[in-house]
Design brief:
Layout (H helix, E strand, L loop, with lengths): L20 H22 L10 H7 L2 H18 L10 H11 L2 H14 L4 E7 L5 E7 L10 E7 L6 H4 L3 H8 L5 H8 L4 E3 L5 E2 L35 E3 L3
Antiparallel strand pairs: 1-2, 1-3, 4-5, 4-6
Amino acid sequence: MIHKMPELPYAMEALAPGMSQETLEYHYGKHLKTYVDNLNKLIQGTPYETMELEEIIRKADGGIFNNAAQTWNHAFFFNNLTPESKPMKQKLVNALTQHFGSVETFKEQFTQTAASLFGAGWVWLVKDKQNKLSILSESNAGTPVKKGLKPILVIDVWEHAYYIDYRNRRADYIHAFWNLIDWDKVADLCVPKKYSCTACDYIYDPEKGAPETGIAPGTAFEDIPDDWTCPLCGLYKNAFVAIED
């Protein structure tokens, strides 16, 4: 399996002035590409050659883990960003308030963790299998994928993420980061959309799953097999529609 560069959901210059085109050209175009290229070279002729990226991260160590994890971490980071950040959806506000006391408290704790992380690494908002949110700091290539946690939001605090634009002013970079987050994507990761059957009143809630049909709690609707059917009326998955927040 050949691992490819993820596509950016925006133009290289779109995040300026918070994140310049030059930063994207180096961070995405050079740093991430190097990780992807190194990973493809390292896995040749090994059992990892046929594995998906997340499986490699869970099973590998050393150089293969580092390059696989950095490939995955960077793809997630860039996908979390947008030039048109919108206000948080209420469902995300509710979730952050429930676990941290308020949105402001969450931002303060996340900012402090990112500012104080020694050296290079990542700071994540994650959710465990009991749907509890927490802030996780990881050095170097550390990733919640290795720990079985679901990533919701991440900031890259390696120096190459901000040195072109902010030099050694990590605090200024973190401040700018808050204005570049795609809160809609964060909300859907934190509290996945529910789906309604168009033929009956059954609603699929990802947090509850559908254990009676073999779908475990925490399973996103997109990850349900296409031949899955409604537990009440037997209609196929393609007959479900997302419920707007």
